[in-house]
Amino acid sequence: MMVMLLAAGRGKRMRPLTDHTPKPLLQVGGKPLIVWHIERLADAGITDLVINHAHLGEQIEAALGDGSRFGVSIRYSPEYPGALETAGGIANALPLLGDKPFAVINSDIYCDYDFAQLASCATAMQARDDIAHLVLIDNPPHHPNGDFALSGSRVCPLPTSHSPLPALLTFSGIGIYQPSLFKDIPRSSSAPLAPLLRAHIALGKVSGEHYRGLWVDVGTPQRLAELDNRLDSLQNMLHSSHNTP
To answer: Which helix (DSSP H) or strand (DSSP E) does residue 210 occupy?
Structure first.
């Protein structure tokens, strides 16, 4: 299946680190954030990738090339900086994404989500005639109120005071979408994703799952440094265990 990696954000909260380096190329654990995704997608057998970019996008293309050294094929969807938002960026890339469901992953997160299950999620989504499937996580400290309600495998409207309280969770930045979700957005125009999703959630057309594994929104220099230290520690532990007689 096709996967789009979102890499067009300015990364304002990461300044001054992002003044001269695009956020997806900031390093943790010895490699750029976006490379962790690319390598895990390749390991999962997913090799057709599209990457959008804007701020310092030429650095992303120079660093990743056509993807061959990672065992994938990368095509690019350039944007002008700060213009299109998430849904607009996806709509702009639709000619590269084909007519089947595709996955979209934020490049500024780190996670160990099993990308190998994306294809089966897309198949199940088609069978239910859903428009989207969202991977949701426990609310992190910096986002305590969550984004969406999840009841079983269905993303549902936020509860009213008279309805049972389903789990309120945060969108992980990993989703699978039907191309038709973006069909009414003109190319090169700005559009946010959340209103589109909420409109179809109200129609009962969005499924979801609760992912409980490792996930980090690398949104500030502090969280970047903490993740880097965590990955270094894990790699040192693995290296020590391999060298233990």
So the answer is: strand 206-210
Give first-to-last CA distance, the chain, whole Å.
42
Encoding tokens for residue 110?
């780190």
Interhelix angle 33-43/57-64, rounded to 10 degrees, is: 40
Q: Does domain 2-243 have CATH number 1.20.1730.10?
A: no
How far apart are alpha carbons 156 and 149 in whole angstroms? 5
Task: Quote the Cα angle for 229-232-233, to 5°.
Answer: 85
74-111 per-residue burial string, b: 16 or more CB within 10 A, e: under 16: bbbbebeeeebbbbbbbbbbbebbeeebbbbbbbbbbb
Intervals of the chain under pLDDT 50: 242
pLDDT at 187: 85
Stated pTM of the model? 0.90
Tell me the domain boundaries of the chain. Answer: 2-243
